[in-house]
Write a structure and sequence with these properties.
Shape of chain C: rod-shaped
Number of strands of chain C: 0
Radius of gyration of chain B: 21 Å
Shape of chain B: globular
Radius of gyration of chain C: 27 Å
Number of helices of chain C: 1
Oligomer: heterotrimer
Distance between the termini of chain B: 42 Å
Largest sheet of chain B: none
Number of helices of chain B: 6
Distance between the termini of chain C: 85 Å
Chains: A mainly alpha, B mainly alpha, C mainly alpha
Chain lengths: 222, 244, 63
């Protein structure tokens, strides 16, 4: 357990120091949300209606693009080989690394979302709902994404391969996240149903993601 | 024949060579029977009219699209758990065929939708799920084409296939839920609880024909893949010999 | 075989099916031919090289 905690702290430290790229995700998120009104026009009513969807799409893309570095840096400097040879179960190591990654890229997105919600003319209810759904939903994106990150690093291919593989898997998270946020913003269905399914999806991906990613790392590194 | 005997690629090649002519003949017979039934015997549907004939291609393609992913999942288990040497050959050969049938399913569905729904595409639950599955097939093919070493690519593809197999039902469920949420225009439900035998017989014949077609193409593609790996090994040996 | 008012869609659907299946069949057959040819070339070259090596070895023993 101590080694996992040390790994977690190390990963967070690496991410927040200069060159770590923890804030890149938020910057990307901000850019996406700023670009959308240029495509749609500055109609505040329309933006308020589709605001939750824009925020969710932006957060989804931002958290997926940041995943590229999850194992790549450790692979380049050789620490991934040490981790693979270590005594800690690889599944838990992957889970700890993903948690560190979420703390440094997912959580900032959740914190930034209320401000971006304001400029998209969302009301207080909708802003709270988007932040809540992102808080619950972004871990699912990170943990599902670890599979893609592990495959990309073992195949020594970065770039677009990871999003191409992972994006179809994130569709359920997107559907229930946006549905819950819209429900709270004044939809016809109740907030609880999609929100609890979103929680279930997150729990499932926290289980499936590390196992599949650990299997990919083992298979790829031997 | 026990599966262990097939682990020897040469024996598998010999078996494929013996089986392929019979399979081709069976496919042609079944396809001829199916097309004759579909085009000349099957009556028009009282709701869809003659467009029901599109269903005889569309529905079997949809079945095959799902069945081929299931086949690849079994092969993926074979790769990861038993390291059967033919498992990743089978998985790799199946992926483009699966993508082809999924594409055919989407295309015929869209051509059926234009006269029935008045538009080539509706974000209907079934069509959307198949579209997502098509994306996943393409991702899998992209993964196969990324890496040159076939056994490394095989293990990576096996993991992605299994993750996909876990996720496809969840995606289907989500898309169904999303679809009821947004209340699409009422659509003509194909099939329904009871299909009249006059439609069912051609449908099943076409399904059998397309399944045989897939089996033939799959075995032939597996043979190609084994030959491709032989060529690769020989080239590497030749390169080593030249440098030594 | 009367196809009714939507004949064009049925014909296009079947034509598309023929095209897709034809493309798959063509892919498999062309791939087979390519691999067979490359295998044959490699085997011929391998025999030539082995023969060449044997020749070189015999010259070595003559000295």
């Amino acid at each position: 357990m101590i080694s996992l905690k040390a790994l977690l702290i190390r990963d967070v430290r690496i991410a927040v120091r200069i060159g770590g790229g923890a804030l890149m995700g938020v910057l990307f998120f901000l850019s996406i949300v700023t670009l959308t009104p240029f495509a749609l026009g500055p109609d505040l009513k329309l933006l308020a209606r589709i605001g939750p969807a824009i925020l969710w799409i932006g957060a989804l893309l931002a958290s997926l693009l940041a995943l590229d570095r999850l194992f790549a840096a450790d692979h380049e400097d050789g620490s991934l080989d040490l981790i693979l040879m270590g005594r800690a179960p690889l599944e838990l190591v992957v889970a700890a690394k993903a948690l560190a990654h979420w703390l440094t890229t997912g959580l900032p997105l959740v914190i930034a979302s209320p401000i971006l919600g304001l400029i998209l003319n969302l009301d207080a209810n909708a802003i709270a709902a988007v932040a809540a759904t992102l808080l619950v939903g972004t871990p699912a994106l990170t943990y599902m994404g670890t599979i893609g990150a592990a495959l990309a690093v073992t195949l020594r291919r970065g770039g677009l391969l990871l999003p191409v593989l992972v994006l179809p898997l994130t569709i359920p998270v997107l559907i229930f996240g946006v549905a819950a946020a819209n429900a709270a913003a004044g939809g016809t269905v109740s907030f609880a149903a999609p929100f609890t399914i979103l929680c279930a999806l997150t729990l499932m991906s926290i289980v499936v993601g590390p196992f599949a990613a650990a299997a990919a790392l083992r298979a790829g590194m031997e | 024949m026990p599966l262990i005997d097939l682990a020897n690629p040469s024996r598998f090649l010999a078996l494929v060579g013996k089986m392929l002519p019979w399979l081709v003949a069976a496919t042609l017979v079944a396809l001829a029977a199916g097309l004759w039934q579909a085009l000349f015997v099957a009556p028009d549907d009282y709701q869809q009219g003659a467009t029901v004939k599109i269903m005889f291609v569309h529905v079997p393609s949809a079945w095959l699209a799902m069945a081929i992913w299931a086949l690849m999942s079994i092969a993926a288990l074979g790769t990861l758990a038993w390291r059967h040497p033919l498992a990743d050959v089978a998985a790799k050969a199946a992926a483009p065929l699966g993508a082809g049938f999924t594409f055919l399913c989407l295309l015929t569905g869209s051509l059926w939708g234009r006269p029935m729904w008045g538009t080539y595409w509706v974000w209907d639950a079934r069509l959307t799920s198949v579209l997502v599955m098509f994306l996943m097939y393409l991702g899998l093919i992209a993964l196969w084409r990324t890496v040159e070493d076939p056994s490394r690519a095989g293990r990576a593809a096996a993991i992605l296939t299994l993750v996909g197999a876990i996720n496809l039902p969840i995606i289907k469920f989500s898309v169904d839920w999303w679809n009821t949420l947004h209340q699409p225009a009422s659509v003509v439900r194909v099939g329904g609880p009871a299909i009249h035998p006059s439609i069912l017989v051609p449908l099943l014949t076409m399904a059998l024909a397309l399944t045989l077609l897939f089996a033939t193409l799959h075995l032939a593609a597996m043979r190609n893949e084994i030959l491709r790996r032989r060529v690769r090994t020989m080239q590497m040996l030749a390169a080593q010999g030249a440098s030594a | 075989m009367a196809l009714g008012p939507h004949a064009i869609f049925i014909v296009v659907a079947y034509a598309a099916a023929v095209l897709v299946v034809g493309a798959l069949v063509a892919w498999v057959m062309l791939d087979h031919r390519t691999q067979r040819r490359r295998l044959a070339e490699l085997e011929k070259r391998g025999q030539a090289r082995r023969a060449g090596e044997r020749g070189a070895g015999e010259r070595g023993t003559e000295k």
